[in-house]
Amino acid sequence: MAQSRSGEALGASYRLVELIGTGAVGEVWRVSVGGDSGETGVAAAKLLKPEHADDAGLVERFVRERSVLLSLRHPSIVRVQDLVVEGDRLAIVMDLVPGGSVRDLLAETGPLPAHDALTLVAEVFDALAAAHARQVTHRDVKPDNVLLAEPWSPGLTGAVRVSDFGIASVVDEKMRQTTGLLGTPQYMSPELISQGRSGAAGDVYATGVMLYELLAGRTPFAGPGTDFTVAYRHVTSTPPRLDVPADLWAALETVLSKDPAARPSAADAASAMRRLAATHADLPALRPAVAPEGFADVERPATIVRGAAAGAVSPATIPGGAGRADGAASDRDGTGSDPATAAAAGPRPELGEGGSATIVRPMPRRTAPPTRPVEDERPRSRRPEWLTNKALAFAGLGVVLIAALVVGLVVLLPGGSTEDEAPTSPDAATASQRDPALPTGLSIVRDASYDPDAGTVSLTIAYAAQSAPLTGALLEVLPAPGDADGCPPVTWTGATGSRNQPSVTGVTADCGWTLTGVEVPAGGQIEVGATMPASFADATALDAWLDEAAAATTEATTDETVTGSAYPAQRLLGVQVVTPSRTVSQTPLAVTLVPVWADGPDELNPLYSSPSTGSPSQMLVDVAGGEAGVRFADGCGGALAVSSDGLVVTALSVAPTCVLRATVGNFTNLESSPFSITTRD
């Protein structure tokens, strides 16, 4: 029935071609781009269910979210091209991603080796970090919504494309009104289930569930029961332990923490996953895990309902049911006495391991003290007859005089004054700082450690890359630490450091250093060390210095007045794909990749030209690993042919409007301006 709709128009620019799949909120179709004017490309369109079009509020959100979704750009996010509102149809038009989903990958291969699973998830975290920076959350991260730009092969990087950000943003409120929740039970965060709300931390949790599934072949809480049973295990149970190294399991437990505040940000999680991927590059895939016989409850403080002084309290007398985690934590403990009195009544009962259930146990019965006459209830102490009030007064005065004499001797004797004491050395301190990922895929984390005894500060700079290897010179600005003047001498390890020369680089930066010999592998990281003399008053001063160094480096590399191609891994903002406005069929298409800097595009110094002659530019080597990082793709529905190495494009057939797509290192989803293909005159 659905296939019979093939050929129908979708708005003015699209036409349904083939049903690709269905989901909870609608259908996904392959669509041709161009409408009645002729096909110029293909895309994917998610058609929301017709009932959504009847909701005026949803349609309003649909239109309102358009600018946000269209501006959500990242190499690991499926690009939204358009939003269509037409009669009873609401559709989100996206790039067509041909490599299938991670769900398909799991069905085909089963559990992945740790390196592949961690690298794949790191790219998902990259996408989430970019979205979270724009205040957009996904709310339904799962293998079905993580697509691959090309068929899977071991070691594949840069292929992840997270889809359906638009669905979560648009239909969230509608789903809450009808079902109370939006998401998939296997991947719902504890706070979404228990409180009905979730944010960026919920996306991190769901991605952690997916990592568990990539390693084990099953989600942590899959098992018998209804969807509600499975969902509630996220709140009440701990994930079964996997046979993986301790550091990998610790990272997995962190992203699966029940407390949203204890989970890392998506950016931090991405860095952690890449470090673990490098550490466990040779770890083989696990055998598919089987569902456990039972799930261990999350350890929670047991509730103690304390009984009355004369006996135990029965559960029926408990006001409000569960109560506090412990009577001593509240103002009263159930007996009418304060916590100190309750504690004095006797030792607390042995509760054993805390589980998720409320424990109601009476306190031990207290034995009533012997009855005394009223006048004897408050026994008075007795003292010798000679110890009169006057004697006590003289004794107290004597104690005061002796204390004053001792203090005076301490102050007046040589060496007794505190004014001449040498100040104590400040404590050792550490600080950490992270830069957002740059367009080239470069991430920088700086960790500083101050040693007051040696009078030095040690700086570790971790450089990480995403889809493409990064090489070439890098800039680091290290201002004078503490109250020192001038630029400090620095000893570098892991790279060759020399003073930045503005006359050569074009970049002006006080106390700037040029680092060479830095080679960051795709999906990996390297560390560079720096040591210099320093003096800091405290940890706050060290933090301020590290932030100042990072800010000065960023200011220098983003200066719009700088021209030239120095430090491309830090300064390159984008790549333009330039083609002629018109070309002839059956001829190679001339393509120029133009670098875009803070001061604009530089057409005089291109990154790459196709068809190419000679060696690739050093800039291309630095940001994409050379020609290996360049790939062209047909955006004209078959009107262009691309060579097997992805570097040479040939115009095949006539097309009134055509575009060329390209990938250059970490810059993906690049598109040329429209051009036409005509026949020879």
Structure characterization notes:
The protein has 681 residues and is of the alpha+beta class. The chain has four domains: 1-96, 2-Layer Sandwich (Phosphorylase Kinase, domain 1), CATH 3.30.200.20; 99-300 and 355-363, Orthogonal Bundle (Transferase(Phosphotransferase), domain 1), CATH 1.10.510; 429-569, Sandwich (Immunoglobulin-like), CATH 2.60.40; 572-678, Immunoglobulin-like (Sandwich). It has a six-stranded antiparallel sheet. Helix 2 runs antiparallel to helix 6 (165-179), helix 5 packs antiparallel against helix 8 and helix 5 runs antiparallel to helix 11 (266-279). The longest helix has 24 residues, at 389-412. It starts with 8 loop residues before the first strand and ends with a strand.
Layout of secondary structure:
Elements: E1 9-10, E2 14-22, E3 26-33, E4 41-48, H1 50-53, H2 56-64, H3 66-71, E5 80-86, E6 89-94, H4 102-109, H5 114-133, E7 146-148, E8 160-162, H6 165-179, H7 190-195, H8 200-216, H9 227-236, H10 246-255, H11 266-279, H12 339-344, H13 389-412, E9 429-434, E10 443-451, E11 456-464, E12 474-477, E13 491-493, E14 496-499, H14 502-505, E15 512-516, E16 525-533, H15 539-557, H16 568-571, E17 574-578, E18 582-584, E19 587-588, E20 591-597, E21 600-601, E22 608-610, H17 618-624, E23 630-634, E24 640-642, E25 649-651, E26 655-658, E27 660-664, E28 667-671, E29 675-678
Parallel strand pairs: 18-29
Antiparallel strand pairs: 1-2, 2-3, 3-4, 4-6, 5-6, 7-8, 9-10, 10-11, 11-16, 12-15, 13-16, 14-15, 17-20, 19-25, 20-21, 20-22, 23-27, 24-25, 26-29, 27-28
Helix pairs in contact: 2-6, 5-8, 5-11, 10-11
